[in-house]
Amino acid sequence: MRNPQSRWRDSVTLEIPFRDLDPLDICWHGHYVGYFECARNALLRTIDYDYPEMRASNYAWPVIELYIRYAQPLRYRQRIEVEAILTEWENRLRIDYVIRDVETGKRLTRGYTVQVAVDMRSGEMCLASPAVLAEKLGMK
Known about the structure:
Blueprint: E1 9-15, H1 31-46, H2 51-56, E2 59-60, E3 63-70, E4 79-88, E5 93-101, E6 107-115, E7 118-119, H3 131-136
Antiparallel strand pairs: 1-4, 2-7, 3-6, 4-5, 5-6
C-alpha cells in the first residue's frame, strides 16, 4: 500500500559537522544516507519496531533500494530537519525522506529507501511483510 499522507512519520534535527565536508566545503553526498538513517530510526521507534525489536521478532529488514535527489548542498553548521515518512508497508517498507533547512524551511533534498523482510531463521526473503509489522502499526 502506498500512502504519501502517512500518519507514520517522525523527524530529527541535525547540524552538519566539519567532518562531513568534502574538499569543496560542502557536505559529501555519501553522508546523506546516514542522515536518512537517523530519521528512519526515530520513525521506527515511534512504532516500537526499531532494529533491536526487528531482531527480537526474527526478521531483518535490509535496505534493497536507495534514491536521493540532491537539490541544494548542505553546508558546515547548517541546521537541518530530516523527516522520514512510512509510505508503504504491506509487501515492503518504503520510507520517504525530506531534508529541509531549519531556518528557512526550504527543501534541500528528498529521497527514499526500500527495505524487505528477511526471515532470520531461514534466510529467506518474505514476499509480504510479516504480521509483526501490522501489529506494530496497529492494523491487527
